[in-house]
Amino acid sequence: MRSPLRPLDRYVLSEFWKVLVATALGFPLLVIIIDISEKLDNYLARELSAQEIALAYLFGIPETMFQVLPAAVLFATVFTVGGFTRHSEITAAKASGISFHRFIAPIAAGAVVATFVGLALAEIIPPLNARRLELLKEKQVRAANQRTNFAYAADHGRVYKIGYADVGSGSMTDLEIERRGTGPDFPSYLVTAKTGSWGSEGGWTLKNGYFHIIPDSLANISIQFDSLRDRFFTERPVNLMANPRAPAEMGFADLGNFIKAMERSGADVRKLRVERMLKIAIPVTCVIIMLIGAPLATSTQRGGTAYGIAISLAVTVIFLVLLQLTQAIGAGGLVQPELAAWMPGALFTCIGTYLLIKVRT
After folding, report:
1. Residue-averaged pLDDT of the chain
2. Strand ranges inside the chain, DSSP E
3. pTM for this structure?
4. Inter-residue contact 233 to 208 (CB < 8 Å)
5. What is the pLDDT of residue 142?
6. What is the separation, in whole angstroms, between the first and last Cα of the chain?
7. 304 pLDDT exceeds 80?
8. Alpha-carbon distance 29 to 211, whole Å?
């Protein structure tokens, strides 16, 4: 069977991937060196071993790769196309009847592959982040079987306030369950109980308490109970011992569930909604930013490598500034959070499309 790629396509794609891989791996190594030089004294003060530090930074590489992937695609595009331009390879291709758009098609395909790599990295980063924080002792692992006077944010917008919980006996005392509502159709309620026990069939049984239904600020319906089963209270005793996860430790789906729970409790989740959408928007930027880099790189013949670096850095800095700006806009409520995450990409798509149309083919 004949390969769908022509020899020229394979050549262009191989040159692109050489630079892309070197950049995608080189940036994280540079970040690691800078970070270690700044924080090594803190790590030594925590009595971390060299193995723990090395393993923690190894777990941190996927996150750094995810963040720099669009910049890596841009650098690879600019230097690959710039090299072809300086060596008149694009001119030779045009003389053979191959347009510029067809010539860079393998690079576009490589950028699409980089997008899927970024989407995969976004899902494997959360558990690695959690493990990294544990190794660096920035997040302590709770190993005790008892816990006193703590709050636990659960699903469905509920918050548990527990006076004492014991994993071994599967029991708790002085429990409050609070859910903030939005009105009579979704009322707030408060459940208080003196004791609770985990059953062998799963689920908690609460005893000796009150169930307060609060549809508005003027009403409070109270029901006393001897025993109550809450179908939403499904957290196992050992799960109550765990520290709550940060948004950076959640994947796209988990973060979505977390946002829904926070929305039900009345919390402001606009910033979290922007961060969640960026898990998709940043990888997709790999394709978008390639549209800009390829036309700009055709003008690097006179400037050489320095000009290519300047173009790449300038576009990267502008994109990062726009990203920070739109995050603030989305978190502030000026536009929809999901729309804010896509605004830099939309702007760069328009610019890239215009440059592709204007470039001599």
Report:
1. 82
2. 146-153, 158-166, 171-179, 188-198, 204-214, 221-229
3. 0.68
4. no
5. 47
6. 31
7. no
8. 56
Token output for 204: 């908690």
Cβ atoms of residues 315 and 322 within 8 Å:
no
Q: At what angle do helices 270-297 and 304-332 cross, to 10 degrees?
A: 160
In 3D space, the residue among 193, 202, 191 whose CA is nearest the CA of residue 234 turns out to be 202
Angle at 56 between CA 58 and CA 68, to 5 degrees: 50
Q: What are phi and psi of 277, to 5 degrees?
A: -70, -30
Q: Which two tokens stand for residue 201?
A: 């069939």
Q: Where are the domains of the chain?
A: 7-139+269-358, 146-242
CA torsion sign for 262, 263, 266, 270 is positive
pLDDT at 301: 52
- CA-to-CA distance for 294 and 300, rounded, in angstroms? 11
pLDDT digits (tens, 9 = 90+) for 50-78: 888 889 889 888 888 888 888 888 888 88
DSSP 228-270: EE-TT----TTGGGSPPPPGGG--HHHHHHHHHHHHHTT---H
pLDDT band at 141, cuts 50/70/90? very low
Helices 304-332 and 337-358 meet at what angle, rounded to 10?
150
Cα(174)–Cα(316) distance, integer angstroms: 54
* CB 190, CB 178: distance < 8 Å: yes
Tokens of 343: 């605004």
Q: Which residues, 6+ apart, have CB-to-CB distance to 44 below 8 Å? A: none
CA-derived radius of gyration, the chain: 27
Two tokens at 349? 């798509």
- Crossing angle between the packed helical segments 7-45 and 105-135, to the nearest 10 degrees: 20
Q: How far apart are CA 259 and CA 276, in angstroms?
A: 9
Nearest CA to 208 among 192, 222, 190? 192
CA 67 – CA 178 distance, rounded (Å): 38
Question: What local confidence, expressed as pLDDT, does residue 100 receive?
Answer: 85
